[in-house]
Design brief:
- It is a single chain.
- The chain is mostly helical.
- The chain has one domain.
Length: 422
């Protein structure tokens, strides 16, 4: 990932003054504090707030970078990110998504979904361009405290009947605490990589225990799955690092390519007693949703139904082509599987662009030093598990949640552990 130089001393052509340098430091440190200390905790009180926090942090970051390095260098850094291989692949996916709105059954709904997607993506690009290569030394401990605090808040609110939300008559339903615990389940992994590099394995284990406890005490099956999958992937990566790295791309590719028939496959290989055991997690209903949206994907392989069209899918003519027994679940809003949503809304072209991005992510992880891979693989595995099992693909909070760990992995590392940029 491309970043600007850490200080103006590394940029002899910078025209910054002592005053502007001080202002830049304040802005950049403020952005770091928002990302590592404020965002996780605020999600426990406002579970859609992460895109807003990222946006404010991005504005602070751009302001600080302009003060310290000048607008020209900021624009150059943004351009390098956008025109990188990953940036171009992302632009291709976004361009196809925009084109597909032309055949959406509700273009207004689709345009709103597109705007929701673009906001956190734009903030992520600005942060990638302008955040210092190393965050302040206090950042890892601040993130650790924020993750523990968020996990505790989730447990207290869910198990004690929302004592804090009652203070301002907030929404007192257990599912509102799902997003914050999912968020910290991903943010833990860049923190773990940083702490392991510093030799603080005990602290990393304590923070993981807090996240796991928060997930268990919450009503979020998705967070429990994320913790289990992340921990499993981490253990495998430590035990067989080369095998884990070699299997990453094929597993991701297979998981994406199977999506149109994913529900059918899961239904056939899952014993009835397993569905009974997972009844509280609505496993049977979830598989029925996957089957229904898989039927849509198979009938619109070339084009999909249009970006962001899932909430209005019952009004799409494709419903008449779906077998009657699978139509009811098309009214749930989205497939509860981000990869399947790519297939159903964007068709094979969208799936091809998504596959390209997944393979690029796998390649990047394989190029990391062996001792840096386990946490990265764990984070990617947990994110994919969450995406395949639960949330809508384009929700702004989810885009922010998967973007932030990418931004933090390098920047939380101590200087001695930094690897050369690709």
């Amino acid at each position: 990932m491309f970043v600007l130089p850490k200080t103006s001393a590394e940029s002899p052509d910078s025209a910054s003054t002592p005053c502007s340098h001080q202002g830049a430091r304040f802005a950049l440190d403020g952005a770091a504090a928002l990302l590592v200390a404020v965002l996780p905790v605020l999600m426990a009180f406002a579970n859609r707030s992460s895109p807003l926090v990222m946006g404010i942090a991005a504005l602070l970051c751009v302001g600080g970078a302009v003060l310290e390095w000048g607008a020209g260098r900021v624009l150059a850094a943004i351009k390098r990110i956008v025109l990188s291989p990953e940036g171009i692949a992302s632009l291709l996916l976004l361009a196809w998504a925009l084109v597909s709105i032309a055949w959406s059954v509700d273009r207004r709904q689709s345009l709103a979904a597109y705007a929701e997607l673009m906001a956190p993506l734009a903030a992520g690009v600005l942060l990638a361009a302008c955040l210092p290569e190393r965050l302040p030394r206090w950042a890892p401990l601040a993130l650790a405290a924020a993750i523990v605090a968020t996990s505790a808040l989730v447990a207290v609110e869910v198990r004690l009947g929302f004592p804090l939300r009652r203070l301002w008559s907030g929404r007192m339903e257990t599912f509102v605490m799902n997003r914050p615990i999912v968020t910290v389940a991903l943010l833990f992994w860049p923190l773990a990589a940083s702490l392991r590099s510093q030799g603080r394995r005990g602290l990393a284990l304590a923070v993981f225990a807090a996240v796991a406890a928060g997930a268990v005490l919450s009503t979020s099956g998705t967070s429990k799955l994320a913790v289990l999958v992340g921990a499993g992937a981490y253990a495998i990566s430590l035990a067989t690092p080369r095998l884990a790295g070699a299997c990453l791309a094929p597993v991701l590719a297979a998981l994406l390519l199977i999506q149109p028939v994913f529900g059918v496959v899961v239904e056939r290989v899952t014993p009835a007693r397993a569905f009974d055991a997972l009844a509280s997690a609505h496993a049977r209903e979830r598989v029925d949703i996957w089957i229904s949206f898989g039927e849509v994907a198979m009938r619109r392989l070339g084009t999909g139904t249009g970006f962001g069209s899932s909430p209005k899918l019952p009004n799409d003519p494709v419903v008449a082509e779906v077998p009657a027994q699978h139509r009811e679940m098309l009214g749930v809003g989205h497939p509860h599987d981000a990869l399947l949503q790519v297939w159903s809304e964007l068709g094979a072209p969208g799936a091809a662009f998504a596959l390209l991005l997944l393979l690029m992510a796998a390649r990047h992880i394989r190029r990391l030093p062996e001792d840096r891979r386990p946490e990265a693989i764990a984070c990617l595995a947990a994110a994919v598990a969450i995406g395949v099992e639960s949330h809508g693909a384009w929700q702004a909070w989810w885009i922010a949640t998967v973007t932030l760990p990418v931004l933090l992995f390098r920047r939380l590392q101590p200087s001695a552990a930094v690897t050369p940029r690709a």
